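Appendix B. Raw example, untouched.
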Amino acid sequence: MFAKGHSAPEVACRLGVARQVAYRWQNAWQQGGQTALASKGPAGPKPKLTVKQTQQVVKALLAGPAAQGYQTALWTLPRVAALIKELTGVAYHPGHVWRLLGASGFSCQRPERRAIERDEQAIARWKREAWPALKKGAPATPNHCLY
């Protein structure tokens, strides 16, 4: 756009960025041409795990905690951190493991605690029959003295 004679404010408006950013781009373009505007890659430190190591961890996670020797079928952040350390030799703090999981497509889920004696059919019947009757029995007008 700069090569076509567009000004920095016009570039900022068309691309939806701040004018300061467009001026910075214009200065870079004037000094180094189009190559100066090329992306320099993602900011921040390089990942500790390679793509192959990440795939190895994901495969182990999908196999489940029981396949790794845990008695419960629940992945926790400390367990995942220990798994990563065991498989790859790379240590991660459990508090940062969630970022790796999110980047790999996993989401944070908390298991529902349900009683062993829970009867789904009885609950559905209660919701269908008893709950509407209770809702209809509510008083139509409030019992407030200022009403």
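End of appendix B.
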